Amino acid sequence: MIVEDVTGERTAHCHLSLIVVGRGMNVIAGQKLGLVGNTGNTTGAHVHVERLHSPFTYGSDEKPVRDLPRPVDKVIKTVELVEGSFCDSVCWLVHALNKVKLVRGRNLRLSGRFDKLVGQEVAKFQIQKCGDPGDGLITPPQVEALLEDAGLSGFAVT
Asked: Residue 54 has what DSSP assignment?
């Protein structure tokens, strides 16, 4: 079973014996999705969760490194948007970067970690959409421009 959260991240819940929610239903944190099972190639009843990435094919998964659920508060603190940080602000930034069309843009993983690839995508956005030098240090006005270009609203940017 695949669940898509508010950031667009998809997780697969594997080996369920019974799925108790329907396709397209909204679910909330803590809601029962299904029953533990022993389906597929397993040695015992269990459920595991995999984070899926575009193009959503076999082998495009990774084990989640963040606690679920994903961030709900639409707050982006630019002071947190630096290489090495690991927070909700980065998760929202990456979500927005993935929605914007950039020349040679990448589909970034929603890990919540600001790594070298995130910095490169920020620099591409700064150059291509803001006309700035592209130093990878994003400012509040640039975050607001990114959110607008991505079609995302309702965020507090500090």
From this structure: T
